[in-house]
Amino acid sequence: MTLEERRNLFLRIDQLIRLRIPGTAFLLARRLNISRSTFFRCLDEMKSLGAPIRYDELKRCYYYKEPGGFIFGYFRLKELKEYELKMILGGRTLSVGRSILSGSKPSSLVAKGNLSVYAGYS
């Protein structure tokens, strides 16, 4: 599976989870046109990236324990407003060496948890 295919699959699974679409792993995998084991592998990878995925036995749906979702792709940090950055980082606390949004030299940004971002400016 290419990176683009994997990204699209993660985004589709993310949407099913955020919308709380009901179904067992087998039914959701079938809906996504993948095997049940591939579905579970993707869930495991998403969890390893910090996604708090749970399954509600009564409603028979997957959900996020905390609001959030996946974003893939390049974005310019200095063009983001502080609240947008917090949304992307899931509200995590940041430790910044220099001001990321106003600095002109490369800076590194590290969030608590499983996320790290490097931003370089010229």
Description of the structure:
The structure is a single chain. The protein is an alpha+beta fold and 122 residues long. It has two domains: 3-64, Orthogonal Bundle (Arc Repressor Mutant, subunit A), CATH 1.10.10.10; 77-119, no CATH class. The protein has four helices and five strands. The protein has helices spanning 3-18, 25-32, 36-48, 82-88; strands at residues 53-56, 61-64, 94-96, 107-111, 116-119. The protein has a three-stranded antiparallel beta sheet, with no helix packed on it. It has a two-stranded antiparallel ribbon with strand order 1-2. Strand 4 and strand 5 form a beta hairpin. Helix 2 packs across helix 3. The protein is globular, with a radius of gyration of 17 Å. The chain starts with a helix and ends with a strand. Mean pLDDT is 75; it is low at 93-122.
